[in-house]
Structure formats: C-alpha cells, structure tokens
Design a protein that fits this description.
Elements (H helix, E strand, L loop, with lengths): L1 H37 L3 E6 L5 H21 L6 H10 L1 H14 L6 E11 L2 E2 L4 E2 L2 E10 L6 E7 L11 H7 L4 H8 L5 H23 L1
Parallel strand pairs: 1-5
Antiparallel strand pairs: 1-6, 2-5, 3-4
Protein name: Stage II sporulation protein R
InterPro entries: Spore_II_R (IPR014202)
Pfam families: Spore_II_R
C-alpha cells in the first residue's frame, strides 16, 4: 500500500516538474516576443494629478499636446536611437508644453518629463493594435502630484492614430517592425490577445517566484 502511494506521489511530482518545465520554456519564448517588440518602441505615459473628473480631462489635454509635439520632433524615417535622442534632448521643452496646456486649462500644476527604461505596462488593446505586458522605454509626463490614473500609448513609432493619418501597420513598418511583428500587433495573426495575456500571466508568475526565492 505504501509503495503504491509512493509511486502515485512520484507521478504527481514528475507531472508537476514537467508542467514547470513547459511553463518555463513557454515563458522564455513569450519573453523573447515581448522583448523584440519592446526594443522597437517608446511608450508614452501621462499621469494625472488625481482621479477627479477635471484632472482626468486635463490629462487628456496634455496627452494631445504631447502627441502633436512629439510628432513634429520625430521626423519620418527616424530610427529608434534617433527618436530616443530627440526626445531626451527635448524633455524640458516637452515639460513646458505640458505645463502650457495645464495653464491654458486654468490650473497651476507643475509638469515633469523624463525618458525612463524598464517601465512596466500591462497588456493594452487599442482600436487598431495591441501591445503585450512587459517593460518598455517610456516618455513619462507627470502632472502635479501624479496621484491619478495614467494614460499610455506609443510615441515611437507613431501608432496612436489620434496624432497621425497613416495606419498603425504603416507606422509600424516605417518603425522597422517585421511583417510577423506587424501581424502580431494588429491582430492579423490569430490568437494575439491570448498570447499577450499569456505574457502578462508569465510575468506575474515570474515576479511571484522571484519574491518567494528572495524571502
């Protein structure tokens, strides 16, 4: 009886180990896909002063001004490195434009601008494309205390269609995306939302495992 129980336990242990191994391999593959995309984009992250309706509406006004201005800064055909350099050199100017939009709306909140690496974003779907969860380089605009909900999209390539007339696929192609990556972003490749959610779940699992191992 004891031997049967031991054999049954070993089978469960083997099944668990196999499951962990499969999850790890899948996670490495998913990480690779997300990293390949992250290496080609710069996200836009606008953080409101608070969650009041007025401050949330103000956030969108700042967003529109920053999208319009960054579109002028980043000339067509710019590489990621050129876009990053242009944004880095224009942070003070972008913060000033954000503050100007705030002032025109009747508020006096300060606005800060920074270009940061390794900023975490969840899976996000837009009307014409989607991006998986993960860490990205981000142009961050913080309004006032930065205590409100945030808004994010992509400043390079200009995938946020409110600021461009071309399609997301065209903008991605000009930004150096492969046809496979464009298909993944725009949903031409079936199951892309499931893949993106799987990336997000894997990142959460990995974070939990790292916390457990360091505890």
């Amino acid at each position: 009886m004891q031997q049967k129980q031991n054999r049954k336990l070993r089978r469960w242990e083997l099944a668990l180990l196999l499951g962990v191994a499969v999850a790890a391999l899948a996670g490495v593959w998913l990480d690779g896909q997300q990293s390949a995309l992250a290496d080609k984009v710069i996200r836009l992250h606008v953080i409101a002063h608070s969650d009041s309706p007025e401050d949330q509406a103000l956030k969108l006004q700042v967003r529109d001004r920053i999208l319009a201005e960054s579109g002028e800064l980043l000339s067509g055909g710019a590489t990621l490195e050129q876009a990053r350099a242009a944004l880095q050199d224009s942070l003070a100017e972008l913060a000033g434009i954000g503050a100007e939009a705030v002032g025109e709306a009747g508020y006096s909140y300060p606005v800060t601008a920074s270009l940061e690496d390794g900023v975490w974003f969840p899976t996000k779907q837009y009307p014409d494309f989607a991006l998986p969860a993960g860490r990205y380089t981000a142009l961050r605009l913080v309004i006032g205390d930065g205590g409100g909900q945030n808004w994010w999209c992509v400043v390079f390539p200009p995938l946020c269609l409110g600021s461009v007339t071309e399609t997301a696929a065209q903008a991605a192609a000009e930004g150096g995306f492969s046809q496979e990556e464009i298909a993944l972003l725009t949903g031409e490749e079936g199951g892309y939302v499931v893949k993106f959610k799987a990336i997000e779940l894997w990142e959460q699992l990995r974070g939990w495992l790292e916390e457990r191992s360091s505890a």
